[in-house]
Description:
The complex is a heterodimer.
Chain A: E1 2-7, H1 16-29, E2 33-39, H2 60-71, E3 74-78, H3 79-84, E4 96-99, H4 101-110, E5 113-117
Parallel strand pairs in A: 1-2, 1-5, 2-3, 3-4
Chain B: E1 9-14, H1 23-34, E2 40-45, E3 81-85, H2 86-91, E4 104-106, H3 108-117, E5 120-123
Amino acid sequence: MNIGILLKEGPYNHQAADTAFKFAEAAIAKGHKVDAIFLYNDGVINATRLGDPPQDDRNIAARWTELSLKHGVEVLACIAASKRRGINDEVMIEGGEITGLGTLTDIAIRNDRLLTFGD
Amino acid sequence: MSEEQDIKKIMHVMRRAPHGSIYTYEGLEMILIMAAYEQDLSVAFIGDGIYALKKDQDTAGIGIKGFSKTFMALDGYDVEKLYVDRQSLEERGLTEDDLVVDVEVMDASEIGRLMNEQDVVIHH
């Protein structure tokens, strides 16, 4: 099955980013294709590489880079939501990209499922 | 994309008051963009989500731009399927006449049935 993911919450404050990542990992392990993770609302904060979590904690930003580079999952941050929150190309994680809501529409159309993670 | 079977049924679900968090506003921004893609869009308002449609909102006191009138523009984007949960409306002492747009008021079970028919449901 082809799957798109919409993530609507920022990292750490809310579990959505953890659950979305765990879901993507599990789906890929089962042989599904995870097409893209689209970041919206505070979800765009997942795309900054300026975060520096403690060594003994998970690094959520690094997880998205891993999904992108290792599994070809597009990690996309909505431009309008990003501009509000100081996310731009300069702070973007490796493997991440700024894009528009039109891309989310394409993701919703071209995949078998769009799963939303958020509050 | 010209084939009819390529048109997806996409429902947006508004669940929160218009102010207090950004979900409803950014949800509306998403709807306006998606409306340009000629999909079968609908919007369901449930719980506090119906307050987004309430007439005579005045946001001057909170210093945040109001956007209730933007819902009136949805018609111009061919987003005409606006559903409101009857119980949510009644619980808040509101009627259809209190809303800025024409909506279909329906029972939760009917909205649930429509959700089941969708290819995509996005909650805000």
